[in-house]
Design goal:
Radius of gyration: 22 Å
Strand content: 5-15%
Structural class: mainly alpha
Largest sheet: 2 strands, antiparallel
Number of helices: 9
Helix content: 55-70%
Distance between the termini: 28 Å
Number of strands: 4
Strand order of the largest sheet: 1-2
Number of domains: 2
Length: 249
């Protein structure tokens, strides 16, 4: 399993294991089975339960095709919609514990997922051979859609200890200070904690200050510096995120 170094906005590299071709194929098969199950269910309801097949009597071939496309439309937008809603995952990716991320360290946007979706038409060409070859020969196991959108698929199965994750030990009686942290994603918090941990080790006050300012800007917070230092603020943010998302459970 190869590794990918994601460069954050603070020019800090974080190493992740890239998802293997096998993991991505299994995730694709799981998602495909879900989509097939949906199509079978919709057609069964349409033709057997609602008995609406008579509506297509007398229609020309194009009209019949249009009806089938409308009925099965959710399966076509399945990847882009679910990756947007599930922060880079589909049910198949979640089961395989893999996720789509931006190589530049930012959270992938809907536009990035859309580019991946559009290029899927090319990647699945010739029974998926195009995408498979691209993943095998590319540096970060990227298919054409990943390369075009600047994304990669990483494995979340990294065997690392708590200090290298978004996890943070908090007491049962812990009282959070900033509920706004729920606006952050796991990927955001992973970047924050990794950058902060590295900056504290070398006493890089500039990075700590920039990181603190960035968090305050994103969450629209105005903190009195006389009541809480930048280090205290970032520590609280990390603990609050774990409190509200239950990451320490």
């Amino acid at each position: 399993m190869s590794q990918i170094a994601i460069n954050t906005s603070q020019n800090v590299n974080i190493n992740f294991n890239t998802a293997s071709v096998g993991e991505r194929m299994l995730a694709f098969i799981i998602d495909l089975l879900i989509r097939v199950a949906y199509v079978l269910m919709v057609l069964y309801v349409f033709f057997n339960i609602l008995d609406l097949g008579y509506l297509m009597n007398g229609l020309d071939t194009w009209s019949v095709m249009a009806v089938y496309i409308i009925l099965t439309f959710p399966t076509y937008i399945y990847p882009v919609v679910l990756e947007s809603l599930m922060e880079g995952q589909t049910p198949g990716k979640r089961l395989m514990k893999i996720r789509v991320v931006k190589i530049d360290g930012y959270q992938a946007s809907f536009g990035d997922y859309m580019i991946r979706w559009v290029f899927r038409l090319v990647d699945v060409s010739f029974a998926g051979v195009v995408g498979l070859i691209s993943m095998i020969v590319s540096k970060n196991n990227q298919r054409l859609g990943d390369i075009a959108s600047g994304t990669a698929v990483i494995s979340l199965k990294n065997n690392i200890n708590i200090s290298h994750t978004i996890l943070e030990n908090i007491n049962e009686d812990y009282i959070p200070s900033f509920p706004q942290v729920i606006a952050l994603s796991d990927n955001d918090m992973r970047i924050i904690k990794d950058n902060y941990t590295k900056a504290v080790k070398v006493d890089d006050r500039q990075i700590i200050s920039k990181l603190s300012d960035k968090i305050k800007s994103i969450l629209k917070l105005d903190i009195d510096p006389t009541k809480m230092t930048e280090r205290q603020f970032i520590n609280v943010i990390i603990k609050d995120y774990n409190y509200y998302t239950g990451k320490d459970n």
